[in-house]
């Protein structure tokens, strides 16, 4: 299997962690990296908030001591702020890869023309990519997008070509529309179509990779150069171990016993406590992961609820000690979906957004004021 090349970066296996709000912080990236190699991208951060030194945004954009390759995802709708943010993170933070979010389906993003709404305005998209590439210098800039707003407004081919023409080092496609959100099945043939349209630019496929074998199958069916993994690794950081084995042609190991899951949960909670430099806050942040880790395992509803309310590492440890370490995951539940499954839902766009598709101007100032994840 050929190594994925993103500018000067060699990614082997050809696996990229998808940015996920409130999940892919430095602690989670460290945990996943302990299971296998890949390119591990930060949570999405606002370019404008970064330029204005918003404290919450700066924390999201922080990196661990173990991160030799620093990969950051930026959200922005104004070329000036995107370019300035890229320049700062490259020069001041030593970032080695910048990904531009043009696929977030959250209404609080799309209603301002950002995320999955942005590719409707191809000229604006092009100017944003151009500003980022010029500011990044030798650091590669990539773009992550969806198929389009809905089935009536598909943008991925035109947007992919525009990004490539402006110097994007790779284009990633989540093969769903914004309207779909996370429902239904990802349209893998759309990934193949994009790859055929961009033969000279790496194309990454995203959507419905729950097992290591799914990633290999996606590459075989679509011809994509690599895969982006999101919800499939929620509560399953060992998926990256499975991806290493699958791409190497080795048999994938069985899922861990419940004892192995408990060990991963302890490690994750401690990494979060260290990351936030606050045990109580780290444990509270870990609570949302409990259900994902225990999906399919016989852990007991009462114990799950108690773990999701734990207030200290000691309390969490005590509850984990009560689990049956020898319990196994039923085979039919291996690769069960995790995370968001909601949708479809009509997308929220700025007034007249589709009709003004040729307008190269960025939306109003409130569009980039948004600073949280999506």
Radius of gyration from the CA trace?
Answer: 20 Å
**What is CATH's topology name of the largest domain?**
TIM Barrel
Category from helices, strands and their pairing = alpha/beta
Report the uncertain regions: none
Q: Note the main sheet.
A: 8 strands, parallel, barrel
Fraction of residues in H or I helices: 25-40%
* CATH domain class of the largest domain: Alpha Beta
What is the 3D shape?
globular
Portion of residues in beta strands equals: 5-15%
**CATH superfamily descriptor of the largest domain:** Aldolase class I
Per DSSP, the total helix count is: 14
Straight-line N-to-C gap: 33 Å
Identify the notable features of this structure and list them briefly.
374 residues, alpha/beta, globular, two-stranded antiparallel ribbon, single chain, 8-stranded parallel β-barrel, TIM Barrel, 12 strands
């Amino acid at each position: 299997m050929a190594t994925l090349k993103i500018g000067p970066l060699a990614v082997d296996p050809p696996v990229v962690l998808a940015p996920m709000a409130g999940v892919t912080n430095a602690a989670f990236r460290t945990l996943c990296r302990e299971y296998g190699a890949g390119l591990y991208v930060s949570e999405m951060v606002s370019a404008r908030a970064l330029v204005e030194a918003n404290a919450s945004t700066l924390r999201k954009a922080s990196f661990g001591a173990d991160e030799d390759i620093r990969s950051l995802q930026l959200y922005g709708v104004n070329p000036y702020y995107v370019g300035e943010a890229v320049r700062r993170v490259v020069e001041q933070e030593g970032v080695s890869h910048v990904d531009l979010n043009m696929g977030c389906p959250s209404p609080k993003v799309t209603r301002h023309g950002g995320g999955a709404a942005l590719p409707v305005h191809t000229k604006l998209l092009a100017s944003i990519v151009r500003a980022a590439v010029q500011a990044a210098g030798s650091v590669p800039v990539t773009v992550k997008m969806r198929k389009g707003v809905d089935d009536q407004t598909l943008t991925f081919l035109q947007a992919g070509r525009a990004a490539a023409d402006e110097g994007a080092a790779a284009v990633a496609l989540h093969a769903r529309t914004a309207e779909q959100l996370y429902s239904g099945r990802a349209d893998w043939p759309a990934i193949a179509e994009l790859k055929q349209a961009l033969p000279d630019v790496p194309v990454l496929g995203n959507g419905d990779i729950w097992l290591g074998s799914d990633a290999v199958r996606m590459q075989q069916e679509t011809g994509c150069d690599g895969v982006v993994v999101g919800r499939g690794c929620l509560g399953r950081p060992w998926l990256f171990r499975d991806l290493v084995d699958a791409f190497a042609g080795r048999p994938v190991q069985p899922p861990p016993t419940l004892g192995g899951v408990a060990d991963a949960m302890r490690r994750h909670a401690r990494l979060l406590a260290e990351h936030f430099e606050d045990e109580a806050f780290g444990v509270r942040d870990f609570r949302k992961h409990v259900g994902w880790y225990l999906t399919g395992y016989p852990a007991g509803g009462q114990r799950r609820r108690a773990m999701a309310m734990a207030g200290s590492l000691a309390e969490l440890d005590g509850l984990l000690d009560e689990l049956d370490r020898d319990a196994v995951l039923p085979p039919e539940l291996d690769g069960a979906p995790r995370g968001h499954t909601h949708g479809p839902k009509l997308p929220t766009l700025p007034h007249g957004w589709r009709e003004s598709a040729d307008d190269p101007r960025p939306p109003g100032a409130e569009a980039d004021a948004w600073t949280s994840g999506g």
